[in-house]
Amino acid sequence: MNLLLWRHADAADGFPDHERVLTEKGRLQAKRMAAWLNARLPADARVLVSPAVRAQQTASALKRDFITCDALDTSTDCAAVLKVLGPPQDMGTTLMVGHQPTLGAVASYLLTGVEGPLSVKKAGVWWLTLGRVHKEHATLRVMMTPEML
After folding, report:
1. Nearest to 125 by CA among 14, 24, 53, 45
2. Per-residue pLDDT tens for 121-147?
């Protein structure tokens, strides 16, 4: 299974947190990363997105259908995200658009077996390949930021 963790792009400060929108910089970050992703993602990739406005706007840059997933919301945790991911035997591709620190904790758990403080930069993508038997035996394939494009 390929799992891509995409943190939302740069967002304006504000309240309520859930309704924060992307800045001009964030819209550009999302557009650049979406172009990079679209060149590499299979057509049948499953795209799951936090209901927060900034994550929805980030995912919209892909110009693909996506599913709004409450388990990726701003107040979620690693366990909730892993539950949504499903069994590792599914060898498809899933892209999750969400938030820090949850995405970093998920990456840490899948790579090391321990939830640690890894940082997924704004609009950054971590591409992991998960083993067939255990989710926590993942390989990091790519770590990309908009600045690297």
Report:
1. 45
2. 999 999 999 876 555 579 999 999 999
Residue type, 141: R
Backbone angles phi, psi at 6, to 5 degrees: -120, 115
CB atoms within 10 A of CB 12: 13
Average pLDDT of the residues in 31-50: 97
Average pLDDT estimate for 50-55? 98
Structural domains of the chain sorted by starting position, each given as residue range(s) with its CATH number in brackets: 2-148 (3.40.50.1240)
The pLDDT of residue 86 is 78
Question: Rounded CA gap, 110 and 86, in Å?
Answer: 13
Give the number of other Cβ atoms within 10 Å of residue 18's Cβ.
Answer: 14
* 98 CA to centre of own chain: 5
> Which sign, positive or negative, has the C-alpha torsion 59, 50, 135, 90?
negative
